[in-house]
Design goal:
The complex is a heterotrimer of chains A (about 250), B (about 325) and C (about 210). With about 250 residues, chain A is of the alpha/beta class. Chain A is built from 9 helices and 10 strands. In chain A, helix 3 packs parallel to helix 5 (about 145-155), helix 4 (about 115-130) packs across helix 5 (about 145-155) and helix 5 runs parallel beside helix 6. In chain A, about 50% of the residues are buried. The termini of chain C are far apart. Classes of the chains: A alpha/beta (about 250), B alpha/beta (about 325), C mainly alpha (about 210). Chains in contact: A-C, B-C.
């Protein structure tokens, strides 16, 4: 008996006005699995990621998380989102709160954790991502890489079943990318279920169990990293890889 | 008295010809001197104010433009109407000859508000002021007064069903309405120290508050209350327990005793021949006031101001 | 100026009334305005609608009309408060619309990513509004809210038309009893300034203090 997959995306379509950004997407993510979504910009990979915790509403199709279909905006959806961590390209740390307050807000407000306990756990998480010394600083006082690590700690603080990463390193200066990827690799190694939208092929190769290649709103190829990078099946994947790896 | 009443512009517009207009009590009692109005212009001593005005063919009078019953602009005809205006025309007729109704443009009106009455007299903008102008000693130091030609009384208005309030002392401990900054408020406080005053910016709000039961009485000059009663469709009544005397006088330039005497003479003639009473009936009578006995004029002797005395001696 | 000095205790009393009227009304207006701003950005359509109707109806009616309507009109349908309470109710209801619009403008300055991050953590709409969006929105509208406050100091003068003994009430009263309108109104203006100027400084200080570091 294999356990039911954590995330099931079935026949999902998404339109922005006349723009058809997701076309008949089917995707499952098993527990403990890391799925990396790659593809050229405009291929719909970020939108797919945002649809999974319903920051975007799908036009048709169905998404379930742990067997529960995504509800409409409201309390039930809020409960469900609490179990799905999200890391954004632009960090989106709460500008008026310190790093530690950013990390403890969710546990206190949503999980109703006591302040002291939330604080203690928050500090541990900050230590784990290597910025415990920045706990009382404001986001604007941190470098991009530090901010993104704080954002990861904030998401982890909720004890999520699933972590979504929406291009987490795209807004970073090159020298900061590694510090963030290191944290992500560690998470993957610990068996965290992750969906990662990224351009970091190195990360995809080393941490992903499966790679989904998207183009024109469709998942064009779905394979293990070895197979995808060494023997891409489609011309579009070959074309994409040749451009990426050329430099 | 007679300050803050920019108020009930609406009051007089609705002037009902209430049956109260008195031809009754007094108008014939003072018949005297036997002089009949002449149509030829009277003659005056050369150099007197009367002679100067007659030669100029025009007298300028400061009146209120917003005072129901006394001096108010008629919104339809744009004319200034009221008892004060009628007094001005009587004096105009005495200078230029003819009837008061026919003086026409020889009597011109300038708006006088409470604050500019004295300056207007001092700088000659007006030749006299007839503008609900209460005679008092402070003012007598700056201007001189002919008259009084009317005594205003402060009265009380209550709901028609009220039988508890019969005089000003009954207002102690009661909620009573008047207008911010009016002498009415000061007067009632003096007579009924325990009164609980509610002060609005207009008397029409007082009438509303009386109707809503937030106050049990409204107090100010009888003419204003008369207007409110006449528009209340029988909801309110006047207690008719007057508790102040505010003598309204005609302000003239300080020291012009000849002109003041002339105005006083003119008033007494109007008392005697019924012109004063008919002027009252045409104006204040229309808002429900009974025509009273005209007040005796006060020919007081003027005292030279100390300031003037010092200046003459030092130079 | 003797008129003012002779009546100094009265002026101080009236200044206190104006200050009380302003501060109480402003606190209530902030409450009303924040709530209504929340309504106007809420995902619930009837709330958005309610917020819009309230703002457009009250904001576009002259304050003097609102005061008279409340005191003389509502009394007749059984809604009756003391004149002082009525003044506070009307002033806060009226000022609440301006607070609502100001706060709404502030909400629009908060980056959408902030709300998205809050939603991703599982915060409900009201939680994200009060914990994440509003605290940042207020920081960007301290100055315009200060203008609303100063406007309220001056608007409170209309309470004098319904028997509330504030600075304007005293001004009218003294003008008539002393016959010195210029001195009296300069006195009133001075005491209004005494309230408004320090408010302006306090607002500036507060704005610098809470400025979000970006």
């Amino acid at each position: 008996m294999t356990p039911a997959p954590l995330v099931v995306v079935e026949k999902v379509n998404k339109h922005f006005g006349d723009l058809h950004v997701l076309r008949d997407i089917d995707l499952t993510v098993d527990r403990g699995e890391v799925v990396v979504v790659i593809g050229p910009s405009g291929s719909g990979k970020s939108t797919l990621c945002r649809c999974i915790n319903r920051l975007e509403r799908v036009t048709s199709g169905r998404i379930t998380i742990d067997g529960v279909a995504l509800p409409e905006e409201g309390k039930a959806l809020a409960r469900l989102r609490a179990d799905v961590g999200m890391v954004f390209q632009s960090f989106n740390l709460f500008a008026h709160k310190t790093i530690l307050q950013n990390v403890t807000l969710g546990p206190i407000k949503v999980r109703k954790l006591a302040k002291d306990e939330a604080r203690e756990r928050g500090l541990k998480l900050l230590e784990r991502v290597g910025i415990a010394d920045k706990a009382d600083r404001y986001p604007a006082e941190l470098s991009g890489g530090q901010q993104q690590r704080a954002a990861i700690a904030r998401a982890l603080a909720m004890g999520p079943k699933l972590m979504l990463f929406d291009e987490p390193t795209s807004a970073l200066d090159p020298e900061m990318i590694k510090e963030v990827l290191d944290v992500m690799v560690e998470l993957a190694a610990e068996g965290t279920t992750m969906v990662v939208v990224t351009h970091e092929m190195g990360f995809a190769r080393s941490a992903a169990r499966r790679v989904a290649f998207m183009d024109g709103g469709r998942i064009v190829e779905m394979a293990s990293p070895e197979q995808f990078f060494d023997q891409p099946q489609t011309d579009r994947a070959k074309d994409f890889l040749s451009k990426i790896l050329a430099h | 008295m007679g300050r803050a009443r920019w108020i009930g512009a609406s009051l007089v517009a609705v002037a009902l010809t209430a049956g109260a207009c008195g031809s009754s009590d007094d108008s014939g009692t003072v018949k005297g001197g036997g002089q009949t109005a002449t149509t030829t212009a009277p003659s005056f001593a050369a150099g007197s104010t009367m002679a100067t005005l007659q030669a100029k063919g025009k007298i300028t009078v400061g009146v209120k433009f917003d005072q129901p019953g006394f001096g108010q602009r008629n919104p339809t005809t744009n004319d200034i109407e009221g008892f004060d205006v009628e007094m001005a025309k009587l004096i105009g007729a005495a200078i230029f000859g003819g009837k008061a109704a026919d003086v026409g443009s020889k009597v011109s009106f300038v708006e006088s508000v409470s604050a500019n009455r004295e300056p207007y007299l001092q700088n000659g903008t007006v030749d006299m002021v007839i503008a609900t102008y209460t005679i008092n000693d402070t003012r007598k130091q700056i201007v001189d007064f002919a008259g009084p030609y009317f005594i205003a009384h402060q009265d009380i208005m209550v709901k028609a069903s009220d039988t508890t309030i019969k005089s000003v002392t009954d207002l102690n401990g009661k909620k009573v309405c008047s207008v911010t900054g009016s002498t009415s408020a000061t007067n009632v406080k003096a007579k009924a120290p325990q009164v609980d005053l509610t002060l609005f910016d207009t008397y029409s709000k007082c009438a509303e508050a009386l109707g809503d039961g937030r106050v049990v009485a409204v107090t100010t000059d009888a003419p204003i209350l008369g207007g409110l009663v006449s528009t209340s469709n029988g909801a309110y009544k006047l207690v008719k327990a007057p508790f102040t005397d505010e003598p309204y006088g005609i302000g003239v330039k300080k020291g012009d005793t000849a002109f003041r005497t002339f105005v006083n003479d003119t008033l007494e003639k109007a008392y005697a021949n019924g012109d004063w009473a008919s002027a009252f009936a045409r104006t204040l009578g229309k808002i429900g006031l009974d025509t009273p006995t005209p007040p005796p004029v006060d020919r007081y002797t003027t005292t030279p101001t100390t300031a003037a005395a010092t200046t003459t001696t030092t130079k | 100026m003797h008129v003012v000095l002779d009546n100094l205790p009265a002026f101080l009393r009236a200044t206190r009334v104006t200050a009380q009227l302003t501060v109480i009304s402003f606190l209530l207006a902030m409450l009303i305005g924040t709530l209504v701003a929340g309504f106007r950005v809420s995902p619930v359509l009837p709330l958005r609608w309610l917020g819009t109707v309230y703002v457009e109806l009250v904001r576009n009616t002259p304050l003097l009309v609102l005061i008279s309507l409340f005191v003389f009109g509502f009394t007749k349908i059984g809604i009756r408060y003391s004149y002082y309470a009525s003044a506070i109710i009307v002033l806060s209801t009226y000022t609440g619309t301006f607070v609502a619009e100001t706060v709404r403008a502030g909400i629009n300055t908060v980056a959408p990513g902030q709300a998205e991050a809050a939603r991703s953590l599982g915060l409900t709409f009201s939680q994200l509004l009060f914990a994440v969006v509003l605290p940042q929105a207020f920081r960007s509208v301290v100055a315009p809210l200060g203008s609303v406050f100063i406007a309220l100091i001056k608007n409170s003068a209309l309470a004098s038309t319904i028997a509330v003994m504030d600075l304007s009430f005293l001004g009218t009263q003294l003008t008539n009893s002393t016959g010195r309108p210029v001195a009296v109104f300069m006195g009133s203006a001075f005491f209004y300034l005494l309230l408004a100027l320090p408010s302006g400084w306090a607002i500036g200080w507060f704005e610098r203090r809470v400025a979000v570091k970006r």
